[in-house]
Amino acid sequence: MRFAYYPGCSARSTCAELNEATHRVAAGLGLELVQLESATCTGARELRAIDPVGFYTLNVRILGLAEREGLPLMTICNTCTLNVLDAHAAFVDDAELAASINDRLAKEGLGYTGRTRISHFLWVLYEDIGEARLRSLVRRPLTGLTVAAFYGCHITRPPQRYKFVDSRNNVALERLAEILGCRPIDYSGRTECCGFHTAAYDERIAIKLTGQHIQSAKVNGAKTMITPCPLCHTVLDSFQREIEQDMGQKLDMPVLHLPQLVGLALGLSPEELRIDRHMVQFDPRAAIL
Amino acid sequence: MSDLLAPGEARQLGQNERYDTVAARNSRFAAGEMITVRVRRSDAASIAEFRVPYRKWMRVLDALNWIAENQATDLAYRWFCGSKMCGTCAVRMNGREVLACWEAVEPDMTVEPLRNLPVIRDLVVDRAPFERKVAELEPWLERPVAYAGFPEPLTHKQMKNASKALDCIGCMCCYSACPVIGLGDLTDFAGPAPLVQLGQTALDPRNDAAKVSRSLKLTGIFNCVSCYKCEEVCPASIPIVSQVIEPLKARAVALMPEMAKHSNALRSVVAERGYVDPSALVLRVRGLKALSNLPRVLRLLIRGKINPIKTFLQRRTAASDAARQYLSRGDRP
């Protein structure tokens, strides 16, 4: 199975370990990832509000690059996923917009016809690998590992669009954790917001919001949190020291990227998955029975 | 046999009754079956529990009415139209903001007052903070030029976003669901409900730009974290983030670029590099203050979370060329 691979900005900088782990895990799952070399940022949340023309062009361009390769697009960041989904929807709905973007893209010999399938890594596991095959690939069941799934916002909301379910009803991560041999725990932060999108200018919102979620995961017995989004990871992990200072208590909650959890079950080592690159240290060998 | 889910189906894992009809959700009950309703009451430390006999087509409001008529005549709750119009009956049911008049009962449900507003009694909240904020935002139309007379040339495309905001029934579900409002005075964020009220006129092209600027300055709108919690609970299905808050942000950027320093910085970083280098973004937004917490910078450096070489030695790439071209103002249709 081949995918046009779009890691996004975070997995190329702050969360470079996610990019490395994804490549390793993809190889283990039999996925071939084709990097889109000239793909740009999808514009985070800001560009879509302040410069819709630029936002749609950059995102449709990414979809066009994948279409040129004749491949579905695989993302590993929630916000990137929603951005390309939004751009695709706008492109399909608004013929005038579509034509104007294609006019601009034509200058570099690119275009889009609306055919690229967009899939986050989490969805690829269910739609392209399948539960049975995934089970058969598990070399080291993660027995004894209690995990708190942190979905983030942008692959579960906005509601009623893109087939997202009521976000509280999400089970994809928990079900996956069970397939890999972990025990998912229930807690109040599952589908809450990490506050990343205002953090570049004011971290206090992210710190206050996320503290409650980590604490709830801890109280309910999680040994680690897992997230399909590097932006959530940045707040959960890289801000955790600041969160602890704000709450006046030690949390010490490790946070794994989703592909890292899959990788551990496939038998990859924590070093190969670059778990050592996280701010909160985690020794899977001690946590897994 | 393959167990692969079809494209798009993984997003639907966990789908059950949401977006189904009251009828479909009610089909789980037999007539006369008892349902458990727990109500958070303001005069009792614990939650009051009631057993209510199920009636066909029963809504949360019907259960509250039954309790008020039969078991707790002093139960305080609000409702008026009973048909999703007046916006007075919103409560939290099993952790989710709903209109009592429009939500099917659950076999076991906890009903609580909305969050983020003072409780007057039981399920009745004080809407005054919302109303004060809305009044402050001057949510009306002021024409910069004299009214030219009827009919005014106004297309539905021009009114696309404002017309969505006009669907608001002022029920406060979004205000209760907003995590940033939940943080209280930490920010000056006005919250989704007041912004929707403002959007009704501020997104109307006939409105005076100076007045819209004055209002937007009071909204703290860039504190919205884009979590879509508000959209998720909106009984009127208003796309609050994408068709109200984001267009209002766009308006703020156009009228007062200084209000959107962060968004403009992100745009410039992408235009220069093709992607976001988080360190470059933070430095641009906060300046050298970003380095004031030196131990933290060092910690991030040790783990390789930040890479000054990459941040300061910007390379030209195919992506940066593309971003520069498509984000430049000159190349616009």
Strand count, sense and closure of the main sheet of chain B? 5 strands, mixed
Q: Given the helix and strand composition of chain B, which structural class is it?
A: alpha+beta
Q: CA-to-CA gap between the ends of chain B? A: 51 Å
Q: Assign the CATH topology of the largest domain in chain B.
A: Fumarate Reductase Iron-sulfur Protein, Chain B, domain 2
Sum up the overall morphology of chain A in one term: globular
User: What's the pLDDT, averaged over the residues of chain B?
Assistant: 91
* Average predicted confidence as pLDDT of chain A: 96
Strand fraction band of chain A?
Answer: 5-15%
Task: Chart the SSEs and their pairings.
The complex is a heterodimer of chains A (289) and B (333).
Chain A: E1 2-6, H1 16-29, E2 32-35, H2 46-50, H3 52-69, E3 73-75, H4 78-93, H5 95-106, E4 118-120, H6 121-129, H7 131-137, E5 146-149, H8 172-179, E6 183-184, H9 204-219, E7 224-227, H10 230-238, H11 240-247, E8 255-257, H12 258-266, H13 284-287
Parallel strand pairs in A: 1-2, 1-3, 3-4, 5-6, 5-7, 7-8
Chain B: H1 22-26, E1 34-40, E2 47-53, H2 60-70, E3 90-93, E4 96-99, E5 108-112, E6 119-121, E7 124-125, H3 128-136, H4 160-165, H5 173-177, H6 192-202, H7 209-217, H8 229-233, H9 240-255, H10 261-273, H11 278-286, H12 294-302, H13 308-312, H14 318-327
Helix pairs in contact in B: 3-6, 6-9, 7-9, 10-11, 10-14
What does this structure look like?
The complex is a heterodimer of chains A (289) and B (333). Chain A has helices at 16-29, 46-50, 52-69, 78-93, 95-106, 121-129, 131-137, 172-179, 204-219, 230-238, 240-247, 258-266, 284-287, and strands at 2-6, 32-35, 73-75, 118-120, 146-149, 183-184, 224-227, 255-257. Chain A has 13 helices and 8 strands. Chain A has 289 residues and is an alpha/beta fold. In chain A, strands 2-1-3-4 form a 4-stranded parallel beta sheet, sandwiched between helices. Chain A has a 4-stranded parallel beta sheet with strand order 6-5-7-8, sandwiched between helices. In chain A, α3 (52-69) crosses α4, α3 (52-69) packs across α5 (95-106) and α9 crosses α11. Chain A is 47% helix and 10% strand. Chain B has 3 domains: 2-124, Ubiquitin-like (UB roll) (Roll), CATH 3.10.20; 127-255, Orthogonal Bundle (Fumarate Reductase Iron-sulfur Protein, Chain B, domain 2), CATH 1.10.1060; 260-327, no CATH class. Chain B has helices at 22-26, 60-70, 128-136, 160-165, 173-177, 192-202, 209-217, 229-233, 240-255, 261-273, 278-286, 294-302, 308-312, 318-327, and strands spanning 34-40, 47-53, 90-93, 96-99, 108-112, 119-121, 124-125. Chain B has a 5-stranded mixed beta sheet. In chain B, strands 6-7 form a two-stranded antiparallel ribbon. In chain B, a hairpin with a 2-residue loop joins β6 (119-121) and β7. The longest helix of chain B has 16 residues, at 240-255. The model of chain B has no long low-confidence stretch (mean pLDDT 91). Classes of the chains: A alpha/beta (289), B alpha+beta (333). At the A-B interface, α2, α3, α5, α6 and α9 of A face α8, α9, α10, α11 and α12 of B.
